[in-house]
Amino acid sequence: MAVEQTVVPKVTFYTGDFLRTLTAGGLTYMVETESHWGATAEMILGGTATDQGARPFVSDGELFLITDLGVLYGMPVRLGLSESAWTGSLYSTAGPMRIQLGDVTGWGGFLGGGLDIHTPIRWLGINFDVKNFFYSVPNPNGGNFNVDIDLTVGPSFRF
To answer: Which terminus has fewer CB within 10 Å in the chain: N or C?
Structure first.
């Protein structure tokens, strides 16, 4: 059974319940089999940008770190009608995640999906991804349950 591995260094645009929109860096590793099932591992790293009410727990500029593992299901797509059209993989992911905001740590899960566009260069692509993270951390502005969204873009390297 053939396995395709992909590494995606990326820029992430993240917004959350008590986090202001922030830009961070990330790295995703994806493995997909011929049956279209696979796995993902991801890390997002940056500095926090918090709403004023969250500052007793987390201040601006503290460590922002998300790690997650997921199950992936992808399906091939053709981007155009001609024989020379680019192809790609449209995929969905889900799994557990851990978030660290300064000294505060929370556990939860995520649901997401994306498009990995294959270029004419066999090993190079362009990846777009969106994830919805849900987790629990102390939130002085309301409930402890948080739902955040993350949009990412980056080159994908297949091997």
So the answer is: N
